[in-house]
Specification:
Blueprint: E1 2-3, H1 8-11, E2 21-22, H2 29-39, H3 42-49, H4 56-63, E3 68-70, E4 85-87, E5 90-92, E6 96-98, H5 112-122, E7 125-128, H6 136-142, E8 146-151, H7 157-169, E9 175-178, H8 188-193, H9 207-220, H10 224-232, H11 239-247, E10 253-256, H12 261-270, E11 274-277, H13 291-302, E12 308-311, H14 317-325, E13 331-333, H15 335-367, E14 380-382
Parallel strand pairs: 6-13, 7-8, 8-9, 9-10, 10-11, 11-12, 12-13
Antiparallel strand pairs: 1-2, 3-14, 4-5
Helix pairs in contact: 2-15, 5-6, 5-15, 9-10, 12-13, 14-15
Amino acid sequence: MLIVTRSPDLTGAPAAAIEPCVSTPPVSVADYEALARAKLDRGAFDYFAGGAGDERTLAMNVNAFDRWVLRPRVLVDMRRVDTSTTVLGQPLPAPILLAPAAFHRLAHPEGERATARAAAAAGTVFVVSTVSSVSIEEIAASADALLWFQLYVYKDPGITRDMVARAEAAGCRALMLTVDTPMLGRRERDARNRFALPEGIEPANFAAVHHLVAARAAKEGQSPFAAQVQQLFDPSLDWDKVAWLKSITRLPLLLKGVVTPEDARLAVEAGVAGIIVSNHGGRQLDGAEATIMALPRVVEAVAGALPVMMDGGIRRGAHVLTALALGARAVFIGRPYLWGLAVDGEQGVRDVVELLRAELELAMALSGRPTVAAIDRSLVAEA
């Protein structure tokens, strides 16, 4: 048995937390993280694990769950606990979806293909990143998975139109527009590591453009991805462009990165299909509020007009339960399934998803909530 000491800046776990005991098989997300850290190249691990600036928001995303306590009910018939739910009309076995994350081939040679197969086996949604290391067409061909596509808006509207058309042709069920990236947050781990993509790994959805930008960035000592964001992404993205994007697609459009009631109300007015409360996993604005704290105010502002989901800091089934009690329709996980991918490829992703689903099922049973519909605000209180 290997005892691994986890650095507190990796997940924001409190100092008093029990150190992960990495056994065979791993029994928690923390175990998978420790194994992934031992297995991955430091640059790749830090690329996935790191956040912006001092990583305050990265830590707060996890720690803020400690600001809520559960209020279990007893003497409830728990012979059957059902974690299933519906998101955008799609039945799912659990309210745990796979968030968009770039460059899965840094974690495993099969990259997003393995993740898509795992999502298909788990019956859940996999949101493909614009900057995936396998093209959207290859990902769609690799598995009969429920795919959504995460989108940025580009300075050249032709690139945006092309990405939308490709996502539709590949069979994606929804578009998720990331709205918190007018510029790329400064991720100091990547700067210290002089992180660059290894040979053979690239943003496969626009590889030709990447090569031109990367060559120029190398000459100027820049991160190729940061240079790509600066050159391609549209910093003037606003509500008018959200309306334009809605006009060029038949897919439901969700906004990822809404964290305030003010923007939530504007999203309702804009007629989008849903909101993901997200601070980009602490990778953009350091010091931004933890998403589990922002979630209740966004839910209140929306007042049921559209589904609200969230990501950030989910490491336990009890975290999923807390988010559902505070009004989330579902949650997205990012780093946890990447650790599973690094440790054991497709099977590792499947195991992490099932681990969290089983933890959610147990937490529901111990809380007296036999179904997802039975989870409500009365289950949680501020600590």
